[in-house]
Design a protein that fits this description.
Layout (H helix, E strand, L loop, with lengths): L5 H4 L8 H15 L8 H17 L2 H10 L6 H13 L15 H9 L2 H10 L7 E8 L7 E7 L2 E7 L8 E4 L15 E8 L5 E3 L2 E9 H6 L1 E7 L2 E7 L8 E4 L16 E8 L6 H13 L1
Parallel strand pairs: 1-5, 7-11
Antiparallel strand pairs: 2-3, 4-5, 6-7, 8-9, 10-11
């Protein structure tokens, strides 16, 4: 597999801080985000590369491995074990400052001192394939119901069932859909991170939803019926007389579906925001003055 320079992808130097990495990622992610570049395959590919680079470099442990082992950073632990085995076997040889990006052959040649020996040793060691990481961007309404999606990973289509109620930032593992193992080693896994974009008027808090509803002064004072939108459709509310600004009501079971709990939902919390009327006529002002005298 060809070496990918994650620093170059994020357009940063190798000695930058974690804060610099975060700033560079956010800047590029905004620029190449699929929502801002619809049907742009080049931008889509660039966005995936940016996310992959950020996944590695934003993690201090992974970054350290990447800096030392290059494209083979995910096999760092196996390399270290192989080092220890070579020391115990009397084949210790001085090595300097990590591995080049030439791959496994250079590693084994420098470790065991010769091509024939390295080939023999390499043939006996199995390495697990790389894990792949990707980020899937969905709207909040997309995860209100369980649905199917097809992802293309390394030119392979993967049919994925996305359960209702998936959370923003949640990561799921698809076993056996990562890179191929070396010397018949096990295949790596695919990790999918969900990025849920909320463009609705609802605020999500785990399984619960929150909604601010405007209430005119007259209905707040006198009470009455009010129809609002929920994720399931229209809901009719009974407004109690003398409802105060900021009053809250709970609609049980009208919230968001619970992850992998078929048929179970959180609650919907309504906060009433009483709106004061404007542009009153002289007659209306007179009536309010009369009310003020009565109070």
């Amino acid at each position: 597999m060809a070496f990918i320079d994650y620093y170059k992808i994020l357009n940063i130097a190798k000695n930058v801080t974690e804060t610099d990495i975060k700033k560079a990622y956010r800047k590029l992610a905004r620029k190449y985000h699929p929502d801002l570049n619809p049907n742009d395959k080049v931008a889509e590919k660039k966005f995936k590369e940016i996310n992959e680079a950020n996944e590695v470099l934003s993690n201090p442990e992974n970054r350290k491995k990447y800096d030392q082992y290059g494209k083979d950073w995910k096999h760092a632990e196996e390399f270290e074990k192989a080092k220890q085995q070579s020391y115990k076997s009397g084949h210790q040889q001085s090595t300097s400052g990590g591995f080049s990006n030439e791959g496994f052959s250079d590693f084994f040649e420098s470790m065991f001192g010769g091509r024939s020996t390295s080939q023999q040793t390499r043939g006996n060691l199995k390495f697990r394939g790389q894990d792949y990481n990707t980020e899937l961007h969905l709207n909040l309404k997309d995860v209100y119901r369980t649905h199917q999606r097809t992802l293309t990973i390394n030119k392979k289509n993967i049919r994925l069932k996305i359960p209702a109620g998936v959370n923003n930032g949640q990561v799921i593992k698809i076993k056996g859909h990562g890179g191929k193992g070396i010397n018949d080693g096990p295949i790596g896994d695919l990790y999918i991170k969900f990025s849920i974009i909320n463009r609705s008027k609802f605020k999500r808090d785990k399984d619960n939803l929150h909604l601010v509803v405007n209430l005119d002064l007259y209905k707040a004072i006198l009470g009455g019926d009010l129809t609002i939108d929920s994720f399931e459709g229209k809901v009719k509310l009974k407004i109690k007389p003398e409802t105060q600004n900021g009053a809250k009501v709970k609609l049980k079971g009208k919230g968001f579906p619970k992850y992998k709990k078929e048929g179970e939902f959180g609650d919907l919390y309504i906060t009433y925001q009483v709106k004061t009327p404007t542009n009153l006529t002289e007659k209306e002002n007179e009536l309010f003055r009369e009310l003020a005298k009565l109070r």
